[in-house]
Structures are given as structure tokens and as C-alpha cells.
Amino acid sequence: MREDLGVVELTQAMIRSRCVNDGSAGSGQERRNVDLLSSELEGSGADFEVYEPLAGRASLVARIEGTDPRAPSLCWLGHTDVVPANPDTWSRDPFGGELVDGEVWGRGAVDMLNITASMTVAFSRLVRSGFRPKGTLVLAAVADEEALGAHGAGWLTKHETDAVRCDYLVTESGGIPLETPGGRRLPVMVGEKGSCWCRLRIHGEAGHASQPLRSDNALVTAAAVVGRLAAFRPAAQIHDAWRQFIGAMGWPDEVERRLLDPSEIEELIDAMDDVGMARQAHACTHITMAPTIMSGGTKINVIPDTVDLEVDIRTLPGQDEEAVRALVAEAIGPHLLPKVEVMLMADDPATSSPAGTPLWNEIGKVANAFHPGAALVPFFSVGATDARYFRPLGTIAYGFAMFSERLSFGQFSAMFHGDDERVDVESLQMSASMFEDLARGFLA
Fold first, then answer.
1. What's this model's pTM, rounded to 2 decimal places?
2. What is the pLDDT averaged over residues 112-130?
3. Which CATH code of 3.40.630.10, 1.20.1050.90, 1.10.10.10, 3.40.640.10 fits the domain covering 7-180+350-443?
4. What's the rounded Cα separation, in Å, for the pair 93 and 78?
5. Disulfide-capable partner of 44 in 6, 127, 220, 435 (CB 3.0 to 4.6 Å)?
6. 92-111, pLDDT tens digit by residue?
7. Candidate CATH numbers 3.30.390.10, 3.30.70.360, 3.40.50.800, 3.10.129.10; the one for domain 194-344
């Protein structure tokens, strides 16, 4: 029986698979990474199944059955797809998977091929060791997370529920050390913002481009809409998950007070030197609206009568479709709104799980071996994860892995969907060891 690839080599191989998900049904082709993981698990003798609802859009589910049906089950949930990358803005090939100065470079190195590889290697090691837990351990490496999971976790929880049903779940990302006046803290993602993706269809009137005077150019109107969205400043909202995080950080009373005051937090965020931290703090306390894709026009000499603008909207707890539509209308303004048709493409509400559970306690115990004296703090993810499919089933879901001190929280956060994404070898090795220790401590 061959030895496993090792978490560094597996992460590199997954990056090189180029499972790029641009949101279209035929993209992703996660079968390539599933084949890599299948080869890894076949070598260990693990029991697994591959599900492929669309050609190439494959997900893998592996299991180590527990010996006690009353014992809690645990799922490690990782995704195998990545977002597109522009090689012209990277320092290195985004799909080269290069190992440079102790870091693996490439798209997916932090989101989240690193964690999926760590989970797989830990699972393989457990199988090879003959691990026989009381509670069942499930490894799910799924497709399509980067386009809201319809062909991955969404499909599995709907069509193969029993294969992935679990009491507890760990997915991305968490575990990045934060240094505070009260000591080192390790954030655990206990919840996440909702996703309310919109298409704004801007209407105008077609005409000859040689006569633009007083024309109703939909593209010009769309540009004004983009400007309004970019300038919109919705009020801060202080929700329970943010309060719990701030309360656990050990910051001075005056800083804590200002971070919990919606009338003062804006000024504090604007003064932050760490851009990554500022973005996180802002997104954790505000609904966000980011225009990302614009398309329209038919010919260079034709004034366009229709332009589509796609907007990534992330909602806070308690914000529903009605609230989103009202805020979009407020952002666009009454002068432009009659020309804009608002179409919702996705509407997933914010979800969360409680801290202080048996899994929370075990994570804290295991993490202490890697960061002695560090305390866990609940954190709210500003991006969507596949955990939102499991929480409605009654699953307690957290985001956590294990990271070294090499990159700051702000640096780490800025690399999600950004340029020059990379992860250090020590963090990869720490995560693989942490997942193995977590299974042995929680399920044995």
C-alpha cells in the first residue's frame, strides 16, 4: 500500500487541476479534483462514493462508520472548485501550484483547496491507522461552492441527504491567529451572511450612435447606477455574532464600546491601517452591494437600449428580500429607479450555530496543542459557505482550520478571491494534524 501524497503535494496538484467555476453549468469540472482525491483514498482503503449530477460536476463523499449509532457524527466539508484568476495581475502562475520560500502559490491556496487537501490527508491517515470511532466521520469534497453550491452541497443535501447527514460539521475557514491585548485568539466561524445576488436590468432607448444628443443610452444610465451603488453607505447593524466576537477579544473598554456603537464604528473602521481588517469589520456590520459584471450593447454604432448589471449583495441576520429591495431602491435613488428592473438571482438568508457546544470545546482543546493559551472566539463569515445547507437540517456547523503566525488575519482575508493567493507549508501540516486529532478526540 502506497503512502499518501502529503498535504503539500496534494494541495499543489489540486491547484494545477484548474477547477475554475465561473458560474456557468459547464464550468468547474471538479471531476478532475475528485479523481485526485479518489486516488488518494483508494490507496488507503477508504469507503467512498462519487456523485455527479451534471457531467464533470462531481462530488466525493467518504465515510468511516461509527460503532455506536447514538454517538454524534461529524462531517468535514470542503469544496474543490475555485474562482477565476487573471494571470496578468499575479506575481506567479495562479495555476502553477509553485512552492516558493515555504509557501504554496495558486488559486485556491486559501479558498479552500488547502483545507480540503488537509481534510483528505487526515481522513486517509485515520483509515490507514485502523481508526474505529464511536461516531461516524464523513468527508465531503463538493463541487460548485463558488457559485452557491447548486451542483454540490445543495444537490447532495436535497437528493442524497442520508449520505451527508451529520450532527456536527467543520468547513472553511477560521483558525487564523489574532493578537489582542487579552492574548492570542483563534476565530471560529459560527455563522455567515446571506447571499442575495441580483441582476439589475437597465432600460433605455435604441438609436444611432452618431446622434447621441438627448439619447436615452442604457449604458450611460448603468454607469450612473454603478456610481450610486459604490457611494451608498447603509447604516451599521450590530448583531449578536458581532457582539460575541467583540466581547471575547479583550480590547480596551473604549475600543469595545465604539465597535459596538453603530454611530461610531464607521469612523473607527475608516481609521484602520490594515485594509483586510477594515474590510472584514465593515462587511461584518453592514449589508454590502458590490457591482461585479456589466453586459449590454449590440454594435459600436447602436445606442444600447438594455444593459444588465450583476450585483453581489450580502445580507445580515434578519434582512430578507423585502429589506434588500428597499435598500437597492434607496441606493439607486428615485430619479434612476424607474429605468431599473430588479431581478433576484439567489436569496439565501444568513445562518448561524451556537458556540459552547461539545464540538466547540473539543476544537478549543485540540487547538491549544498548536497555539498554547489561545482562546477561541466566535466569528461571523462575510462570505457564503456550504454550511448554510446543513444548518437547516439541524447540524451544528463551524468554520475552522489551523494556521501558523506567518500571515496576519488581514493578509489572509485579502487573498480570498484576490491576487497572489498562497498558504505556508506549516499551516497545511498543522491543519492536517488538527483534523486528525479532532476526529480522535471528538468521535473516539
1. 0.90
2. 97
3. 3.40.630.10
4. 24
5. 127
6. 999 999 999 999 999 999 99
7. 3.30.70.360
